[in-house]
Design a protein that fits this description.
By secondary structure, the chain is an alpha+beta fold. The chain is built from four helices and four strands. It has two domains: 29 residues, no CATH class; 71 residues, Alpha-Beta Plaits. One of its GO terms (molecular function) is metal ion binding.
Length: 103
Amino acid sequence: MTENNTVETSESSSCCGSCGTSEASSDQATPAVREIFHVQGMTCGHCVTAVTTELSKVDGVKAVAVDLGTGQVTVDSDKQLPDADVSAAIDEAGYELTGRVAV
């Protein structure tokens, strides 16, 4: 329980706040849009790399996280991504976009 409190504290506050770098980093790291897609056919680390690489090429994408167990791909971006762009990237990686997950 003490470990959880330590983690929460370090994530929610800066070291001293005098330099302002922690605040600026937090603001820049926050995506404008988080979308979750369901992708069929991913089974291994190579799949994760292929999907991540192709989605990262889509304009505005800042981060991609793949959950092999659920087939869900979380994408953080500057703006909502066009379905056609996401579908094309996943197709290029060799997999099938089967839908969006409600966030």
